[in-house]
């Protein structure tokens, strides 16, 4: 983030106290901060008591093996039972769990009783495929109810799931299946995106060519498109699941039993399998959802407009809302299909009270203009949330005004795949919000902003965000790589968790997130590693070397800009077919290797890359170029004329 943006943020003086009506009936009051500070373990124990435990824990938090944490040790519970059955037992079987809206306009309503029936059938189906507690199951799904059902069925039988975002490529899917050694895959023929069926099954078939140990593929029919079929391996969901017994006795698992693995980009090319476990994760997902969104399960209609393939979908479409017995909206498609008012039409149709989405969506709506949401009745909304990237004050103000009618608090929630649940966020009935600030750690969470040497910075200064105490929903390790877990998160500031984000404390001590400080980009709220895109580019036969940077983008937060040096063959191809054609090929290649979300916005063919004397690529300079900024100090460059050459190749460059 540039100095200019920083000082703009610090000049932000607008303040929004909680609406009195909301504050008067808020689930959480200011006292929670004091209670949690006085005794964090007692605070989290009380939060855990909001769940049903088959056996009580003997210890709330065990940090004796730091940085490997254990929470609620000795306790046993079943996540699916907590998310589904216990609400039915409490007489709430008729409450709607999901209003599902397909992109073409087809709809389904699932009550908690329906969900219980389907989760039990799916659990029995997985058992019939030989899945046992501890086995990993990979999901590659569109946004349909079966995705939730499959996740809960896995949780019910203690088989950790790994959901791979449907926008990822066959290669990415294969890498994840192999890394966690999944033997069963759940998928669909396809899903609807941008007004057309978008196939998923072919990518599974391609991925599995390299996964000999996968024995079963369970396929949901969603779009009806043709699918390839491997006899003996592939089985239709409607054949297998529908034929199962709707009764299944849920077994309670240890609080530290693995619940899921979610892959996320790090600073190397290989994604990290973030492991979440049972009791602590569900406690924090449920408590934060209840507190930060002030949910009233018998009144609210809650909507997280994100994909289940990301952690936001795991914690705030599936586990948090269901643990709280809330009614949610689940939407399959894109925001502009068939028109740019689709989200607002959904809000109006279902009387959505609470909307949670990413700043990139908000900035897109801003670009489309106020008149579009203005055509719908959005008065059911009472609370708005933002997640995934820094929200700039103007987008925050627009969200509050054009969507929230100047009456809804906007909670900017900071957290990560690794944290499992929200960590830094306003509480809507307590906090006076500042546009662009996540304010302070939630009760029970301890965070600090520190300088290079690990000393907390004074108010008014910036540094690195660290978490100084373990928390219930924290990742337990990186799947299969404990050393990498230690090195990545616990080595930079020993004893503290290093989040990889820059942050600033204002004069009140409130926290403003400034984006990643490592080589991870944030494109439309999706984490993508520069190294991952670089290795995809270098795997193309025409490319000799590549350097990738995230450049500020008005809509997506960051856009991927790639600088590539071509091999001799590549130079020749560029001469013959034109540089544009080579760029097109390379963009398609990245899309195939990783997925369309990682496709570079711009590819610049260059003769050389700026490097330090020790041979490190100077990304800061490349970013400056990509953002058309004046260059700073280039004296450590081996050849400072490189920069001029690069700049000449930039469209609009001088
Ligand atoms: C960024 C998404 C600023 C941050 C839940 C973090 C944010 C990364 C915010 C995690 C926010 C998330 N303000 N930045 N409110 N929320 N981030 O793992 O850089 O996909 O490290 O988890 O997103 O992304 P992830």
From TrEMBL:
One of its GO terms (molecular function) is AMP binding. ATP binds at residues 388-390, 412-417, 501, 516, 527. SUPFAM superfamilies: Acetyl-CoA synthetase-like (SSF56801). Coiled coil: none annotated. It catalyses: acetate + ATP + CoA = acetyl-CoA + AMP + diphosphate. CDD domains: ACS. Keywords: Acetylation, ATP-binding, Ligase, Magnesium, Metal-binding, Nucleotide-binding. One of its GO terms (cellular component) is cytosol. Residues 532-616 form the AMP-binding enzyme C-terminal domain. Residues 91-471 form the AMP-dependent synthetase/ligase domain. NCBIfam families: Ac_CoA_lig_AcsA, PRK00174.1. Belongs to the ATP-dependent AMP-binding enzyme family. This is Acetyl-coenzyme A synthetase. It comes from Actinacidiphila alni. The gene is acsA.
